[in-house]
Amino acid sequence: ALVSLRQLLDHAAEHGYGMPAFNINNMEQMLSVMAAAKETDSPVIMQASRGARAFANDIVLSHLIKAAIELYPEVPVCMHQDHGNSEATCLSAITNGFSSVMMDGSLKADGKTPADFDYNATVTGRVAELSHMVGASTEGELGVLGSLETGMGDKEDGHGAEGVLSKEQLLTDPDEAVKFVKRTKVDALAIAMGTSHGAYKFSRKPTGDVLAIYRIKEIHERMPNVHLVMHGSSSVPQDLLDIINAYGGQMPQTFGVPVEEIVNGIKHGVRKVNIDTDCRMAITGAIRKFFAEKPAEFDPRSFMKPAMAAMQKVCKQRYEEFGAAGHG
Ligand code: G3H
Ligand code: 13P
Ligand code: NA
Ligand code: ZN
């Protein structure tokens, strides 16, 4: 059944687990997430970015959501807009069958200019009010994602803040977070604490000076009933990096968010954990390996199958590691 983000995260909070939210762009990724949820008896959050909607087409995506629910009627599914940049993006997601939206007002609608508190709270509050009228949920974001190592906003996928940011901008302020949730009435709040999108998050295994899990604790202490969201939470597993590079890839060495740090965050109010990069790497590694071993193959089904199995394996691991398994 299609459920809202609020329904899923309230349940997660009550039972003390975290929900991975996996990005999808096509049928294969949707089927991989659903198979992992079924296998582990977990609920589902699937999310589509603006780029995913442009790639897959809104009509196709809306039918993919319906297909997921029809295929697995017993699995609770939340379909979420990832990083909506405007009211129009968020509302059109809902009219296309999404049950939840992120209004990311931490940046202006251009996706690269850091926004002030008032702009963010105003636009996010409007989206929350409208989404609640139709039973959908809203996630907001306060603080700008980027690296505490370099001060750079994450813009490698063509979105994210431009230029060098201050530590103040890169860490969500607890007092502002309280004000923001009160004013906007969001169902979940994404906070900045040193993670960034994509594969290149940290130059070494992160320690507390660059991955500020302490900030999650400080915010959770101020608002124990607010569901917190971690973006940029791929772990960038070394084994997936090694498979890609063993079969012709050229990804530089890099480090993600260790699973044990996410689990620590879940102990302090993190309920939604966004993961895209790990799934991308699993798919790419499987396809590179397949073609290295079977260069004569040309049937797309032959390489899509191992790619889907690799993504399903990552999803299964996160469901188990975050404690969502068994709560489907
Ligand atoms: O926001 C980051 C997600 O990984 C989605 O990425 O905008 O390339 O689809 P995307
Ligand atoms: P990763 O790039 O770490 O997978 O983050 C995904 C994300 O935050 C999507 O909103
Ligand atoms: Na999101
Ligand atoms: Zn994100």
TrEMBL record:
<comment type="function">
    <text>Catalyzes the aldol condensation of dihydroxyacetone phosphate (DHAP or glycerone-phosphate) with glyceraldehyde 3-phosphate (G3P) to form fructose 1,6-bisphosphate (FBP) in gluconeogenesis and the reverse reaction in glycolysis.</text>
</comment>
<feature type="binding site">
    <location>
        <position position="83"/>
    </location>
    <ligand>
        <name>Zn(2+) 1</name>
    </ligand>
</feature>
<feature type="binding site">
    <location>
        <begin position="232"/>
        <end position="234"/>
    </location>
    <ligand>
        <name>dihydroxyacetone phosphate</name>
    </ligand>
</feature>
<keyword id="KW-0456">Lyase</keyword>
<keyword id="KW-0113">Calvin cycle</keyword>
<keyword id="KW-0479">Metal-binding</keyword>
<dbReference type="Pfam" id="PF01116">
    <property type="entry name" value="F_bP_aldolase"/>
</dbReference>
<feature type="binding site">
    <location>
        <position position="141"/>
    </location>
    <ligand>
        <name>Zn(2+) 2</name>
    </ligand>
</feature>
<dbReference type="InterPro" id="IPR050246">
    <property type="entry name" value="Class_II_FBP_aldolase"/>
</dbReference>
<dbReference type="GO" id="GO:0006096">
    <property type="term" value="P:glycolytic process"/>
</dbReference>
<comment type="pathway">
    <text>Carbohydrate degradation; glycolysis; D-glyceraldehyde 3-phosphate and glycerone phosphate from D-glucose: step 4/4.</text>
</comment>
<dbReference type="InterPro" id="IPR006412">
    <property type="entry name" value="Fruct_bisP_Calv"/>
</dbReference>
<dbReference type="GO" id="GO:0004332">
    <property type="term" value="F:fructose-bisphosphate aldolase activity"/>
</dbReference>
<keyword id="KW-0862">Zinc</keyword>
<comment type="similarity">
    <text>Belongs to the class II fructose-bisphosphate aldolase family.</text>
</comment>
<feature type="binding site">
    <location>
        <position position="197"/>
    </location>
    <ligand>
        <name>Zn(2+) 1</name>
    </ligand>
</feature>
<dbReference type="GO" id="GO:0019253">
    <property type="term" value="P:reductive pentose-phosphate cycle"/>
</dbReference>
<comment type="pathway">
    <text>Carbohydrate biosynthesis; Calvin cycle.</text>
</comment>
<dbReference type="InterPro" id="IPR000771">
    <property type="entry name" value="FBA_II"/>
</dbReference>
<feature type="binding site">
    <location>
        <position position="231"/>
    </location>
    <ligand>
        <name>Zn(2+) 1</name>
    </ligand>
</feature>
<feature type="binding site">
    <location>
        <position position="198"/>
    </location>
    <ligand>
        <name>dihydroxyacetone phosphate</name>
    </ligand>
</feature>
<feature type="binding site">
    <location>
        <begin position="274"/>
        <end position="277"/>
    </location>
    <ligand>
        <name>dihydroxyacetone phosphate</name>
    </ligand>
</feature>
<dbReference type="InterPro" id="IPR013785">
    <property type="entry name" value="Aldolase_TIM"/>
</dbReference>
<dbReference type="GO" id="GO:0008270">
    <property type="term" value="F:zinc ion binding"/>
</dbReference>
<protein>
    <recommendedName>
        <fullName>Fructose-1,6-bisphosphate aldolase</fullName>
        <ecNumber>4.1.2.13</ecNumber>
    </recommendedName>
</protein>
<feature type="active site" description="Proton donor">
    <location>
        <position position="82"/>
    </location>
</feature>
<feature type="binding site">
    <location>
        <position position="104"/>
    </location>
    <ligand>
        <name>Zn(2+) 2</name>
    </ligand>
</feature>
<keyword id="KW-0324">Glycolysis</keyword>
